[in-house]
Design a protein that fits this description.
Helix content: 25-40%
Low-confidence stretches: 449-455
Number of strands: 16
Radius of gyration: 32 Å
Length: 463
């Protein structure tokens, strides 16, 4: 026995999604033997855009029974039946949460008519209920109302039961260990099956081929599957929109992190929250004024010629310049920590030898500035991080020069790499961002030593 279900909701996300109408058809495989339809008072406001879609407004549900009143009827109606719906996980999970809020469990075997249709009626451009009904000549009245959609789903389900090969497909879908009901309704199973269990990044794409989410994983297939089990609002919505999944192998977790960060900033996916800020880098630079005094200052990188050091906020630039002032006895005025003053009076940098007051000679002051610049440059380093490649026959590398991340690449192990120029041929250039600096800093703090550029070509060890 089957119960074909459709619900209308307030549309406020899975956890806050409240039922406004429910329709259930009890179907024995040949005939509808019973039916239950009711408006439901969600005990909250129905958004205007939902009313525009369904026609259900606050006044219509004002005197309708609440869900807890209808719960016994719904439980009885669906007991010992297979729960059937179009995009079943949505309807099932909303009802499951409604029951959970009143302290009741709701557990039923389930079947999805979207996934069944994709398997038994392949080749259609869209498997939405409306378009599928049009393609299969199924009458659909009162679209986006529970009874109209549920009745159309019954007719669709009837066709599915009688389709060629249906018995085997239904048996597979009802298998307790089958992943069919777990996968997003619009995602072909073979796409999921072709995902590798290796490190890399993956792209969730919608029906238009647009990337809506980028993730990274040590095991791509396992991580992707975890999204489908996650019942958080964002995850459910994202999976409902997912029609395809692409991937890129990385060979290691470090490369996956770097590739993920670059992909998020490039595609700006709707369902990624972190790493979407495009912070403008600031550079600390040196220049000489008309009096011959050397200044240290900071500005956006495009305005900072030959930057000595890079930061991602003016605050960090100021804090770094303050430390240089304290360490080398530099003047806050000529480090641009104070503007439009004749002499410095910085509360955090009390010691200045007086270049701004004329008590220190310009050559003496400039010598200290040069010492500070030499200190900044001495802290910079060139290094390469070796990593496992995507296959057993290749290596991967991450290149940093002058403390600036240049990118990563992959090299066949049999190739003779003897110089930086040889290595550069395989470099995939990338942007140096605040997130990348955080990834590399975290990685370097965990490793014992870096492989320097000079020793990379003779050292066969892999970090």
């Amino acid at each position: 026995m089957y119960t074909v279900v459709d619900i209308e909701t307030t549309g406020n996300g899975i956890k806050g999604n409240k039922v406004t109408e429910i329709s259930i058809f009890k179907y024995d495989g040949n005939t509808v033997v019973d039916e239950f339809t009711s408006l439901v008072n969600p005990e909250c406001e129905i958004p205007y855009f939902i009313t525009g879609l369904t026609g259900i407004d606050n006044q219509m549900v004002h005197d309708a029974p609440t869900f807890d009143t209808l719960a016994p009827t719904i439980l009885q109606f669906t007991e010992d039946c297979i729960f059937v719906a179009h995009s079943v996980n949505f309807d099932y999970n909303v009802l499951k949460n409604e029951f959970k809020e009143i302290g009741l469990d709701f557990i039923r075997k389930k079947l999805c008519t979207v996934r069944l249709s994709r398997r038994l009626f392949p080749g259609y451009h869209s498997y939405s209920l409306g378009k599928l009904c049009t393609s299969l000549n199924i009458p659909l009245k009162d679209r986006h109302r529970a009874r109209g959609d549920a009745h159309a789903t019954v007719l669709l389900f009837q066709k599915l039961l009688r389709a060629q090969g249906a018995e085997k497909v239904f048996k597979t879908f009802l298998n307790a260990r089958s992943q069919e009901a777990t996968l997003p309704p619009s995602l072909p199973k073979d796409v999921f099956e072709n995902l590798p269990g290796k490190p890399g990044i993956y792209y969730f794409k919608n029906a238009k081929g647009k990337i809506i989410y980028v993730g990274k994983a040590i095991n791509i297939k396992k991580r992707v599957l975890s999204h489908f089990y996650d019942k958080a609002n964002k995850e459910v919505q994202m999976c409902q929109e997912t029609n395809h999944i692409d991937f890129e192998l990385s060979g290691s977790n470090l490369l996956a992190l770097l590739m993920e960060s670059a992909a998020i900033k490039k595609h700006y996916p709707e369902y990624n929250r972190s790493q979407k800020r495009n912070l403008r880098p600031y550079g600390i630079f040196c220049y000489e004024d008309r009096k011959g005094i050397l200044h240290l200052a900071f500005n956006h990188m495009k305005m900072a010629p030959n930057a000595l050091s890079t930061f991602y906020s003016p605050t960090n630039c100021r804090l770094y310049l303050e430390e240089l002032c304290k360490t080398f006895g530099l003047c806050p005025k000529y480090c641009h920590l104070q503007e439009n003053v004749n002499t410095c009076s910085h509360y955090r940098v009390p010691s200045c030898d007086g270049v701004c007051r004329g008590t220190e000679s310009v050559p003496e002051y400039n010598e200290k500035v040069q010492m500070a610049i030499a200190h900044i440059r001495s802290k910079k380093s060139d290094f390469i991080i070796k990593q496992k490649g995507r296959t057993l026959t290749e290596d991967a590398f991450v290149l940093v020069r002058n403390d600036t991340y240049l990118g990563y690449g992959f090299i066949d192990k049999d190739l003779n790499i003897s110089s930086f120029e040889d290595l550069e041929t395989f470099l995939l250039p990338q942007k140096d961002t605040m997130e990348v600096q955080g990834i590399l800093t975290s990685f370097l703090n965990k490793m014992e030593e870096k492989t320097l550029v000079e020793s990379y070509f003779t050292d066969s060890t892999r970090v």
